[in-house]
Write a structure and sequence with these properties.
The protein has 162 residues and is mainly alpha-helical. The chain has one domain. The protein has nine helices and two strands, in the order αβαααααααβα. A two-stranded parallel sheet has the order 1-2. Helix 8 packs across helix 9. The radius of gyration is 20 Å and the shape is globular.
């Protein structure tokens, strides 16, 4: 069984290495501005009028997680083809909605994303910068799965301070 260790424990174990790499997910942006980047916030702001079935799927899965619903549409379309080859239209619509939902997620983030770095409290950018410094010292690398500009802005802030 895998045991989860704390962030402090992970840093302690990483002291043995000169390079520390970091993979960022949504949590980085959510921790900084939850009102914009949490799935529940994005879900509330997204316009599902063109895809009412997708809104129903969110409700049936009892989630606001876009990626979970995208996966459900992808796998559901494949499963539907296995059970009912004649229903290619529904399977195709599920695939179309999966692609459209990806676009909707990005559109919603872009629509509510701060326009400029100065719109984010300096203390929040400073906290993000301090967090990232652990990985930038010693030529570590930072990778992001996020759709927003927070990492880029934080790095620019860090370079300006130094």
């Amino acid at each position: 069984m895998t045991t989860l260790i704390s962030y402090q424990e992970a840093l302690k174990k990483a002291e043995a290495f000169t390079k520390k790499h970091l993979l960022l997910g949504n949590g980085f942006s959510i921790a900084c501005i939850p009102s914009i980047f949490r799935y529940s916030s994005l879900f509330e702001q997204a316009d599902f009028n063109a895809m009412p079935q997708v809104k129903i799927l969110f409700d049936k899965l009892n989630t606001t997680d876009f990626e979970l619903v995208i996966n459900a549409l992808n796998y559901g379309g494949i499963a539907l083809q296995a059970y009912n080859e004649a229903d290619a239209a529904t399977s195709g619509l599920m695939n179309e909605h999966s692609n459209r939902l990806k676009e909707l997620l990005i559109e919603t983030i872009a629509k509510h994303h701060p326009e400029y770095p100065k719109q984010i409290e300096e203390s929040k950018i400073a906290a993000c910068s301090n967090f990232l410094a652990t990985f930038l010292n010693g030529e570590g690398r930072i990778y992001s799965l996020n759709y927003d500009l927070l990492l880029y802005w934080t790095l620019m802030y860090a370079f300006e301070r130094n």
